[in-house]
Amino acid sequence: MNVGIVGGSGYGGAELLRLLSTHPTLKVQTVAAGSTAGQDLQEVFPSLGLEGELAPSTPEALADCQLVFLATPHAVSLELAAPLREGGAVVVDLSGAFRLPAAVFEQWYGLDHTAPQLTPATYGLPELRRDELVGAGLIAGPGCYPTATLLGLAPLAGLVEPDTVTIVGMSGSSGAGRGLREDLHVSHASGNTGAYGAPTHRHTPEIELHWAGLTGHDARVTFTPHLVPQVRGMVVTSTASLIGSAGSVRAAFEEAYATEPFVRVLPEGRWPQSTHVLGANTCHIGVVTDERTGRVTVSAAIDNLTKGAAGQAVQAANVALGLPETDGLPTMAVYP
């Protein structure tokens, strides 16, 4: 199957190229970009060892592709998704353009939604939406923070008070993309950790939307992200007040993820670390109940560029197309 990647000169696009290079069925036909169109891939990403000229980001350049990944800014995804779908392509969007109802998107992202008929699209978190993904034509890839958060919270639905969830996220600088930004200069980011974006980070309504779907309760969460001095990888730790029995918590996690190829519930007393998932499409989860406070703490680690973006996009595409879900996706991390 011919595949197109738009945004092929960004971090998400580079990760898609890395993963799809070993995929047995999906073959990259066209790599498109914005400002780097016309340049050679070897020049833009020498680490990949790939050659070929980057095409312009137009539907015409992608006409021969049956599957297109949009690793693009929200506005570009809004512009391209509709004509690509009209042309018959399956589209997997890594931006936030189609994750939320149009009015909610406009409120949190500050952009007019120009394709409200397409949103919210099928949510590309296979562990929670696998059945809905089968045969989907437009897939909204989850944000990196919501991926780690929801995989950690999902087994707790019905076991904790939905309104008591507090989330602390920590992410490396690659989550901000490849563009230049003053707070990401090495002189600012190296050796520095700090909170940002609270309480209006754009991933908050996405977490709330799907937490409500899991619990049947329109709950609000408190989410505080942090930038930490590393390039890639993230850890998200959530706490909530327990309403079920403490003994049922670990059993819920083990049952929920017993057959999932990319989610590992760690033995009791062990906590996930970001370096243990780098480059892999995996999520490591640790969970404990604090009987003193009556609260549950769950921590989840993912690579924000793999399970948090490109890897999960490939995983969702595999499900949508009826391919083996694990095709092209590594489960072994790069360490150290």
How would you summarize the topology of this molecule?
Blueprint: E1 2-6, H1 11-20, E2 27-33, H2 41-44, E3 55-56, E4 67-70, H3 74-86, E5 90-93, H4 102-109, E6 122-123, H5 126-133, E7 138-140, H6 144-153, E8 166-171, H7 186-189, E9 194-195, H8 203-215, E10 222-227, E11 234-241, H9 246-257, E12 263-265, E13 283-290, E14 295-302, H10 306-321
Parallel strand pairs: 1-2, 1-4, 2-3, 4-5, 5-7, 6-7, 8-10, 12-13
Antiparallel strand pairs: 8-11, 9-10, 11-14, 13-14
Summarize this structure briefly.
By secondary structure, the protein is an alpha/beta fold. The chain is built from 10 helices and 14 strands.
Describe this structure in words.
It contains 10 helices and 14 strands. The radius of gyration is 19 Å and the shape is globular. It has a 7-stranded parallel β-sheet, sandwiched between helices. Strands 9-10-8-11-14-13-12 form a 7-stranded mixed β-sheet. 29% of the residues lie in helices and 20% in strands. The protein folds into 2 domains: 2-120, Rossmann fold (3-Layer(aba) Sandwich), CATH 3.40.50.720; 145-304, Dihydrodipicolinate Reductase, domain 2 (2-Layer Sandwich). Helix 5 links the parallel strand 6 and strand 7 (138-140). Helix 1 (11-20) crosses helix 10 and helix 6 packs parallel to helix 8. It is α/β, with parallel strands linked by helices. The protein has helices spanning 11-20, 41-44, 74-86, 102-109, 126-133, 144-153, 186-189, 203-215, 246-257, 306-321, and strands spanning 2-6, 27-33, 55-56, 67-70, 90-93, 122-123, 138-140, 166-171, 194-195, 222-227, 234-241, 263-265, 283-290, 295-302.
